[in-house]
Records
---
Amino acid sequence: MKFIPTRIYLARLRSGARAFTLIELLVVIAIIGILASMLLPAVGRAKDKTRSMKCSNNFKQLLTATAMYATDEHGWMPASNWWSDSWGWLYQANPTLNPAFDLSGGRLTKYVDGMLNSDIYRCTIDGPANWSARVQKLSSYCFNGAVDKYGGSGGSGPPGSPTAPSYRNLTLQESFEAVDYLMWEQDMTIPFYFNDGANFPFEGINDKHGTGALVGMVGGSASWIDMGAWKTLYESRSKNAVWCASVSNGGPMVVQRINP
């Protein structure tokens, strides 16, 4: 057997090797760029779908808890926390806290496993930068103020008492249609919208899931609605899924749809 010295063997390998030309390298880089531009949007869509599913699951748990509460309370819905110093679905006002929002005292607490895990109230897209300027830092979601008739005429008792407006204005679950919107992802860019636990429909929805947001219905289902469809509903003066009570308190006068 004839052995070839290592130095000669390596020299032969080098002499037969063919390097990439500059043009070939540029073509490879261009192909990689094209593939990346095709894949990144798909990855982004998949990530957003995962986030939407998380919010949808949050909604379903909260809506199920609301239905359970109504069953135990002879059909009455939990208050919407229309006032910061109220006792409703999200929190119980507690003057010993600062701010005075006690999540553990919320009307739905005992109906949802892990309710005190604040993640159930938060949209995964709603980051810390948005929360810092808010008074109420518990939830990315809000109840429809229709549950309390948008703070209209009612009791005159002190906040937190059974005769306070937020209690005298409550409505029965059967007063709503199953497709009425009970809760939604509110516009997370306006800190004022997070001063309590409820909003007017015209205060808007969040558009961080593309071009719309998730909404929860009285019947217990959660669905997606785009900004245009929401705008059509809140600008309407006819009865619809968002305007579920008569209101002249800052919003359009609409057809009453729930029992006085």
Note: The mean pLDDT is 76.
---
Amino acid sequence: MVPRASTAPVTAHTGRQQYVPQFTQSGRQQKQTPYRNRLTGRLVQQGLSVAGDVRECIEFGSATDKRYSLEIMKDDPARSTAHGFWRFAANYLLAARIIEVKIHSEGHLYLPALHLHGLAIELGLKAFLLKRGHSLANLREISHSLTKALNLARRHKLGRTVKLTRNELLAIRVLDITYSSNKLRYIVTGSIQLPNLIEISRASETLVADLELLCTGTRGRIAHAL
């Protein structure tokens, strides 16, 4: 059943110009003319259902038309560089540090901080692997596993560049249990194992700071920001 449109001026982004339902003085919705969806190029009747319009966009990008999805997912080594991966890692590290202030003062946002540190560690390790000759396709095979990325990086002599302590290495492996399985992003039942926040914060900072020179050619920016 199609829900009745509200009189409130709510807009919806549906792959075309914003659509706001129009009403006559009697309260009836005005008849809408068909529009052409700019993503799919197909004619769609306005005013029927926003969900139907969104569904058409999804179908266009799904297996029914793989041109669109392949164009989006195509690797671009010229853009996805070790420098870019490191820059994103540094941004997530800085975001985690901002949240940590809230944790120490009010005791909130523990899981979001861990997730941000996980992102910083994942992207930092992948930046290192790019510098060691691995392709973007190789990184995709690793997925979001911190343990796989760490083990592979250590086989490429990560320890010569990044000085992680035994406790920091352990913290990364413990974080991977929940991070790579998305348990930090979604509600799960039962108990979960989490690393010590201080140890994972040190591991994240050490990794990003020690990789700065290798990945960017400069040094000191992240240390100054922290």
Note: Residues 1-24, 44-72 have pLDDT under 50 and may be disordered.
---
Amino acid sequence: MPDTEEDRTAMPTPSVRATDAGPPVTLDVDGGRLISGGAVHARLLVAHDHPAYASSFEMTVAPGFDVGAHVHHNGEEMFYVVDGTLDVLCFEPVSRHGDWRNWTAPDGQSFLRGRPGAFMYVPPGVPHAFANPTATPACLFFQSSVEGGHENYFHELAQLLQETRGHPDHDAVRALEHRYETEQLTAMHPGTPGP
């Protein structure tokens, strides 16, 4: 710790400045890039190529949509329920078999029925899932630092769901997951198409 005024002024300045983090981002309610197709409807707020921590999205989750339990070995994710209801899971289960809503953690934890204000942080390598169990759309704020940019994954998934009318070929889904280093543990269910 510097003891004198002279010591304090001689201290080096930090090497990272706010401008090194990239330009600020301010978007109006209809700003951003829309990614939509089939049951996928997201509004990209900050892309992975911005020097920010993560891609950031507002996402509408269609009724019945289930992303399926999956793992990202590189990157973290955060989810915040803005509107509606989502079932969310984030833990290593005793067994990774069957419907993820039946999974339990060693401490007895099971999935959470998340309502507005519910939050989920997903470290790398941890199984996680979300699904809309209701007949109305849900909205969440979502951030991902998964390599390759999750907006690109969503864009390709939306195209695939739209092209196949919600029933993509198993091999096409696996190829998409492989490109974005996602290990799918349970099946994705597309639900009903969004707006």
Note: Residues 14 and 97 are 49 Å apart (CA to CA).
---
Amino acid sequence: MITPPAAAIDLNADLGEGFGRWTLTDDEALLSVVTSANVACGFHAGDPSIMRRVCELAAERGVRIGAQVSYRDLAGFGRRSMDVPAGELADEVAYQIGALEVFARAAGSRVSYVKPHGALYNRTVHDADQAGAVVAGVRLAAGSGATGGLPVLGLPGSLLLAAAEAAGLAPVPEAFADRAYTPAGTLVPRGEPGSVLHDPDAVVARAVRMAAEGAVTAADGSQVRVAARSLCLHGDARGRPGSPGGSARRWARPGPGGGVRVRTLVVGGEALLIELDSAAEVAALHAELLRRRDAGELGPVRDLVPAARTVLLDGVRDPAALGARIARWEVPPLTETEGPLVSIPVRYDGPDLEEVAERWG
């Protein structure tokens, strides 16, 4: 197995944010990157057909399905703060979870967690009444006599997570790789300049630091601690990792045993560059790629080209999806044997070109 670094973290994104013929998020591209999908449940975006389609895609790719619940605010995309009575809000939260559960089950999956959206998310950071109503809705959706309910994603230190824990629900603190932070550890309001980051390299650098160091640089330059178990990427952010409009996409994926095993760079529409930490890891992954290709498990790949710290796969039909699959593999180490060092002269423009090409794929 390739030795992973110590950091591992879940990636979530808001999906299904459309209505009828209108769409905002590129769900297929994001589902090739994330491990958890926050699916809009019809109150801020999403309709029954969109919810069903996203659940099917998520189930096919092994991505967890989460209910992204909102105030009833289609016109304002759920970003307008509202004063909803606690009992009514609890009913609406349970309603949204139940609707999504129907489509998740039909796809062979289940709703795995709940996350508020937009204004409701921000309100539950400091409003005990609204936070308690969301938790009550999660408990209501669990059914009569249930002793628990679904995990709840929220901002670290929020009243929402405190209420969830007090009610016996699992609190899941999250951080935002593409949002600016205040020195207090809250999100800079979207109406302020610089509240959303659009540079993919900057977003990835922040995400890696959040996962590895548990820290982020706030808007004023101060350092803020972030104790997150999940990182959120906003599906409506321009230039996000996973955006099909970019020439390249870079992201790090946690493997099933924990940690980040490989780093992938999607180049153009048909090439995938996989970065590793050592030549031994390159050799191990290259051997596994050859084995799976010969077994028909890899899919169409025109060329496999190993180098000192990378493996290039060219002629790939869906490089983002393949990169996500490879990142979840358990790669066995190559067996080392002792013997004499043999030097083999190679001329890449000579008569041995065909032999070299056959040896390295």
Note: The mean pLDDT is 81.
